[in-house]
Structure formats: C-alpha cells, structure tokens
Amino acid sequence: MTITAPFGARLDDVVVRFDRGRRLLPDGTLVKDEAGTGLDGATLTIRPGTITGVLGRNGAGKTTMLSLLAAFSRPTSGTVVVGPEGEQEDPWENPWITSGTQLVRESGDLLNDEKVATSLKYYADMRSSWSAETAERLLDLFEVDARKKPTALSRGKRSAVGATIGLATRAPLTIFDEVYLGMDAPTRYAFYDELLADYAEHPRTILLSSHLVEEVERLFEDVVVIDRGRVLLAEPADEMRSRGFSLTGTKDAVERVAGGRRALHRQQLGATVQVTLEGALDDAELAEAREAGVEVGAVPVQDLFVRLTDPRSVSS
Amino acid sequence: MFDGPEPIYVQIAQMIRAQVLAGELKEEEQVMSTTQFATTFRINPATAQKAFAGLVEEGVLYKRRGLGMFVAPKARERLLDDHRNRYFEEVLAPALQEADVLGISTDEVVAYVLGAVGRRKHTTEES
C-alpha cells in the first residue's frame, strides 16, 4: 500500500461551455444537448485533508466542477490543478494525479453486464490503496449481494455499491457526487458514520455534494456553494454558520435587538416573532438580547444556502 | 445536540467543561477520542479536535502521547474558580439589574438572599 498525502485542488477562472450536440445513450436513445454553460468563471481552492461540502441548486455546475477535478472533462478556459500541497498539476491525462483521484457518480460507475464482485475486483486491481476488508465489510453492512449484476439491484443498493467503492479506494482525493440517491435513511446514516470513521483513521480529502444539506452539514469542515456556474462562497463551515443568526421573542424586543439589520427571513406566530438576520451580535447586543428575553439561535447551513441561492434576492 | 448560536466546537468545549464541573468526568479520566466523538455525534473530526485543542490550552484536558486525552488534575477546581469569578458579573449583575427594573428594593433582595441561604443551609444539613 502506498501512502500519499491528501490532495488539494485549485480552479482559476474556469469556464466550461457545452456545444450543441447529440449523444447516444447505452439503451439506444438519442438525446440532443442544447449549448450551455456549466461553469462561468469559477475560482476556488479545496484545502487538502478536509471534508468539503459542495452545495448548489440543480444545474448550478456542481457535477461539471467535480468532473473537472477527476479529469473526466477539460475546461473551455481557465486552469485546474490537483495534487498534494505544493505539487499540484493539471489532472488531464495525468496518471499520477488521476490514480489518486476517485470520483463516485450517482450511477455508481459499475460494469453493468458483470457481477458487482467483478466491478469491485476491477477497482481493486486499479487502486494500490484499495482496502478489500473495508469493501467486504461495507457490502455486508449495506446488505448488497455482490453476486448480482447492477441491473438486478435497486437504485439504493447501486448507490451503496458506489459509496463502498469510494470509501474502500481510500484515494487521496475522493469525490462523492450525490451518491446518496435512492438510499433509505438508515443506509445514508450508516454511510455518514463509515465515512467519518474511515476518514478519521485514514486522512484524505473528501468532496461530498448533496441536496440533503441538513443531514450532512456537520460532516463538513469547509463548504463550497456554487450558483449559476460561479463560486458563491468557499469557506470553513463555522464561518458560513456565523454569517447569520436568528432571534425569537416578542415583536418589540426582537425589533430592538435586531436594530437596523436586514432580515433574511421573518416568521410570526401570534405575538412571537422569529427573524433570521445577517451578521453576528457583539457581546453587548447579546447581553441586551438576554435581558429582553430574546432567544438567540444558530441558522442552519441549509437556511443560509436557500437564502444565498434564492434567485429573487439581489446578488451582491 | 449542539444547536446553539455558537460554533459547534465552542459548544463541544462547553459540554465537556460542564461534565467536568458536574463531576461526570473525573480527573485523570480518559475522554472520548476525536474519532469516537466525531462518529458518536456525527460531526467533522476537525471540529472535535478544535474543541479538544482549546480545552488543552485552558488546562482542562491534557494529552498522553499514544493514549489519548485525559481530564487534567485540578481541572474541576480551576473551572470552579473561573466560574465563581464570573458568577457575580455574568449571573448576579443582570439579576440585580432586572430587580431594579421591576422596582424590587435592595432590602427585599437582601432579605430573600438571607432567607434563601437559611433554607439552603437547612437542606444541606438534613441531607
């Protein structure tokens, strides 16, 4: 087994445009792709050794960005580099980088006409850091019969195989692109637990894109929010959480503590008001809130994400 | 768990301090490892590590190489001192201010305190 330092990554003013074209799907249907823009000037740094959450609405450019990092595609313009700190290189057709990068897409990337066990053997042969023991244990945990072909498995079980491959590979850069699709709640939570335990023992860089923000936000050390092809923010999760707070109490008291701050959200139930505000309270304001009987609460990453990517809000 | 307005690592540190103060975590007792903490509460290990690092700096925890984190000797005493120092400023001062607002006189407060002290003495003697 080779020990490789966790990979980081950098995107610099990356633009990805798609031409109009036609694609033949494996089942024989022909799809027409409209021309479009996947990324539109994205600049971003992924810190090595972190679990980084990649959030964005549908079509924001998450999958486009993750595919670039795994060298599944190339940018139209701009630069992408991946690798250990100080030794980052363009991943495109770069065996040294790509052998350390594992992208798990929602399809699971399995050999459809072969047993699951065959797909796993393929990954095991390709990856020097592969842990057969982990793979076996996870398939058992997720109750996947490796003698079956992927087509005989449910969507959730196929996703579980993808999750297994991602964890067992122990690649210095492991990317899970909406790998949870079709998994039931107990399976998802089992996956989160396994991911944390394995990450703690075998530090590496893990990117996780998900729409189930509430479920996964605490797994993240860093968060990246992509919106309409651009990087809206990339920062430690704690910093993102401190971008806002909520106040709950009687209307007058809440107004007083809120001062002139812009309310991102407001809810009223009888005499009680809850507002979500941008920024943070200083110590004096916190004391004032306490005295006025106003409860100060955190704003879940989920809510901030919804506000930040709301097309109706004026982008700054 | 950990739903307060402060960063999660601050809340973890508060929880461990409270456990030491309450005597649930005894001096020289081993605390959960970062990994155990992360998987138990489903949080990022770096978040737990940040909390532990802060507590080591405060002298509440100390690290035994290769073994893990332990509650420091005198940790409870130190926390008690610290909380006692802040009690007047952070707990009593706002309460007295509130009494002012409500028009409760100093005499009334003093009478209550003396009465309460009497009651507390009684119950501690009985138990």
UniProtKB/TrEMBL annotation, chain A:
Annotated SUPFAM superfamilies: P-loop containing nucleoside triphosphate hydrolases
Domain ABC transporter intervals: 9-253
Keywords, comma-separated and alphabetical: ATP-binding, Nucleotide-binding
SMART domains: AAA
InterPro entries xref list: AAA+_ATPase, ABC_transporter-like_ATP-bd, P-loop_NTPase
One Pfam entry name: ABC_tran
Keyword ATP-binding annotated: yes
GO molecular function (one): ATP binding
Protein name: ABC-2 type transport system ATP-binding protein
Species name: Promicromonospora iranensis
TrEMBL record, chain B:
Gene3D superfamilies documented for this protein: Winged helix-like DNA-binding domain superfamily/Winged helix DNA-binding domain
Keywords for the protein's UniProt record, in alphabetical order: DNA-binding, Transcription, Transcription regulation
Keyword Lyase: no
UniProt-listed SUPFAM superfamilies: Winged helix' DNA-binding domain (SSF46785)
GO molecular function list: DNA binding
UniProt cross-references to PROSITE patterns, sorted A to Z: HTH_GNTR
Domain HTH gntR-type: 6-74
Classification via InterPro entries: Tscrpt_reg_HTH_GntR, WH-like_DNA-bd_sf, WH_DNA-bd_sf
Keyword DNA-binding attributed: yes
Pfam families according to UniProt: GntR
PANTHER family assigned: GNTR-FAMILY TRANSCRIPTIONAL REGULATOR, HTH-TYPE TRANSCRIPTIONAL REPRESSOR YTRA
Entry protein name: DNA-binding transcriptional regulator YhcF (GntR family)
